[in-house]
Amino acid sequence: MMERTFPENFGRLHDGEELLRAKSIEAINASEDLLAHATLIERAMDLMDYFCRQHTAQDDDELTVQLLGIRMFNGAASALKLLLSGYYQTSALQQRDLLETIFLLDYFETDRTRIAGWRGSDKQARQKNFGPAVVRKALDERDRFTERKREEAYKLLCKLAGHPTYAGFRMLVPQPGGNAHCGPFFELTAFKAVYEELAKHLVQAGNVFVQFFPGSTTAGHKTKISFMEVQAQWAERFYGRSFDRSQIDELRALVAAAATG
């Protein structure tokens, strides 16, 4: 009888992924811009982790938001792990799910009675009232956006990663004009592009998620401040616009009052 053991090929694949992870981290450490993205991603994930695990839900709606926060945290962690290990297309696939969840939470934030409606809906009602296209359209109408950039961002991820398309094969090519590569690889331009998108998505995720937890403990306030400070620096660095720090100052005042009270 043949002895069954874990295939050695899986071990070799993992070893290769770990080598690529080290190379990716080396590239990040060599770039101030990439390090800024890393800090932003880490603080956003820390924010979600805190309010998912340390905050006690007050009702089923808040619990639902926490569960969606867990989905975003796990999706961000998976996207980052795949990205660092050289799987750019599958990292982008995880980011599509992340973006869809961000939009859904933003839709709930506009009218929180929708949370219970979504939670209790069957497949048909969920698609009719909370389908991705329905949510994007409602958010664009709320914000008076006419350029449909939400749809553009979502459909780009669908084309490149979410669905089998010929255009998506370019994410499997290590060098422009080269052949598709089977398995993970490192290519700096592709790595930067997918990594930057992840940072952009995590900014949105943190901003939307934290809106559901206005009251908080001192530890919660500190977690919010940590994210918002890094977000401010990130926005000023990459978009050249000043960030309103008044909310950070308000949270600092609450923390200071708690310390002296």
Explain how this protein is built:
With 261 residues, the protein is mostly helical. It folds into two domains: 203 residues, no CATH class; 47 residues. Helices cover 74% and strands 0% of the residues. It is built from eleven helices and no strands. Helix 2 runs antiparallel to helix 3, helix 2 runs antiparallel to helix 10 and helix 4 packs parallel to helix 9. The N and C termini lie far apart (73 Å).
Key features of this structure:
mainly alpha; 2 domains; 11 helices
Q: What are the secondary-structure elements, in order, as H or E?
A: HHHHHHHHHHH
> How far apart lie the N and C ends?
73 Å
Low-confidence stretches: none
Query: What's the total helix number?
Result: 11
Fraction in beta strands = under 5%
- Gyration radius, rounded: 20 Å
**Beta-strand segment tally:** 0
Biggest sheet character: none
Q: What level of helicity do the residues show? A: over 70%
Average pLDDT number: 94
- Which structural category fits the helices and strands? mainly alpha
